[in-house]
Write a structure and sequence with these properties.
About 70% of the residues lie in helices and about 0% in strands. It is mostly helical and about 90 residues long.
Protein backbone atom coordinates (compact mmCIF):
# COMPACT_ATOMS: atom_id res chain seq x y z
CA UNK A 1 0.00 0.00 0.00
CA UNK A 2 1.21 3.57 -0.63
CA UNK A 3 0.89 4.51 3.03
CA UNK A 4 3.09 1.57 4.08
CA UNK A 5 5.76 2.63 1.56
CA UNK A 6 5.75 6.18 2.94
CA UNK A 7 5.96 5.01 6.56
CA UNK A 8 8.70 2.47 5.83
CA UNK A 9 10.79 4.96 3.88
CA UNK A 10 10.31 7.55 6.61
CA UNK A 11 11.45 5.19 9.36
CA UNK A 12 14.47 3.97 7.39
CA UNK A 13 15.46 7.56 6.62
CA UNK A 14 15.02 8.67 10.22
CA UNK A 15 17.11 5.76 11.53
CA UNK A 16 19.90 6.41 9.04
CA UNK A 17 19.91 10.14 9.81
CA UNK A 18 20.43 9.42 13.50
CA UNK A 19 23.75 7.69 12.84
CA UNK A 20 25.12 9.64 9.89
CA UNK A 21 24.84 13.13 8.47
CA UNK A 22 21.31 14.16 7.58
CA UNK A 23 22.57 15.58 4.28
CA UNK A 24 24.29 12.32 3.37
CA UNK A 25 21.15 10.39 4.29
CA UNK A 26 19.01 12.57 2.04
CA UNK A 27 21.54 12.24 -0.78
CA UNK A 28 21.48 8.45 -0.46
CA UNK A 29 17.73 8.02 -0.20
CA UNK A 30 16.39 10.68 -2.60
CA UNK A 31 17.27 8.69 -5.75
CA UNK A 32 15.78 5.54 -4.22
CA UNK A 33 12.61 7.39 -3.26
CA UNK A 34 12.42 8.92 -6.74
CA UNK A 35 12.69 5.48 -8.35
CA UNK A 36 9.98 4.15 -6.06
CA UNK A 37 7.78 7.17 -6.73
CA UNK A 38 8.06 6.82 -10.50
CA UNK A 39 7.33 3.08 -10.43
CA UNK A 40 4.25 3.29 -8.17
CA UNK A 41 1.34 5.22 -9.69
CA UNK A 42 -0.73 4.36 -6.60
CA UNK A 43 1.36 6.87 -4.60
CA UNK A 44 -0.88 9.64 -5.95
CA UNK A 45 -3.06 9.05 -2.88
CA UNK A 46 -0.24 10.24 -0.61
CA UNK A 47 1.15 13.07 -2.74
CA UNK A 48 2.89 11.15 -5.50
CA UNK A 49 6.58 11.55 -6.23
CA UNK A 50 6.79 15.02 -4.70
CA UNK A 51 5.13 13.83 -1.50
CA UNK A 52 7.56 10.93 -1.20
CA UNK A 53 10.57 13.21 -1.66
CA UNK A 54 9.24 15.64 0.96
CA UNK A 55 8.86 12.74 3.40
CA UNK A 56 12.51 11.80 2.86
CA UNK A 57 13.66 15.40 3.32
CA UNK A 58 11.70 15.87 6.54
CA UNK A 59 12.66 12.47 7.94
CA UNK A 60 16.34 13.15 7.30
CA UNK A 61 16.00 16.39 9.26
CA UNK A 62 14.78 14.54 12.35
CA UNK A 63 18.02 12.66 13.03
CA UNK A 64 19.69 14.20 16.07
CA UNK A 65 21.20 11.43 18.21
CA UNK A 66 24.90 11.94 17.41
CA UNK A 67 27.03 15.06 16.89
CA UNK A 68 27.60 14.11 13.25
CA UNK A 69 23.86 14.21 12.48
CA UNK A 70 23.53 17.98 12.09
CA UNK A 71 25.90 20.98 12.18
CA UNK A 72 24.21 22.49 15.27
CA UNK A 73 24.81 19.21 17.12
CA UNK A 74 28.49 19.39 16.16
CA UNK A 75 28.72 22.95 17.44
CA UNK A 76 27.09 22.04 20.74
CA UNK A 77 29.37 19.02 21.12
CA UNK A 78 32.49 21.06 20.37
CA UNK A 79 31.92 23.25 23.44
CA UNK A 80 32.88 20.31 25.64
CA UNK A 81 29.81 20.80 27.83
CA UNK A 82 27.86 17.99 26.16
CA UNK A 83 28.97 14.41 25.58
CA UNK A 84 27.70 12.02 22.92
CA UNK A 85 25.87 9.94 25.50
CA UNK A 86 24.00 13.06 26.66
CA UNK A 87 22.80 13.68 23.11
CA UNK A 88 21.62 10.09 22.80
CA UNK A 89 19.57 10.40 26.01
CA UNK A 90 17.43 13.19 24.63
Amino acid sequence: SPFAVVVALSIVCWLMANFMSNTATANLLMPIAAAIGVSMPSLAAVGGLQGLLVVVAFSASLGMILPVSTPPNSLAYSTGLIESKDMAKV
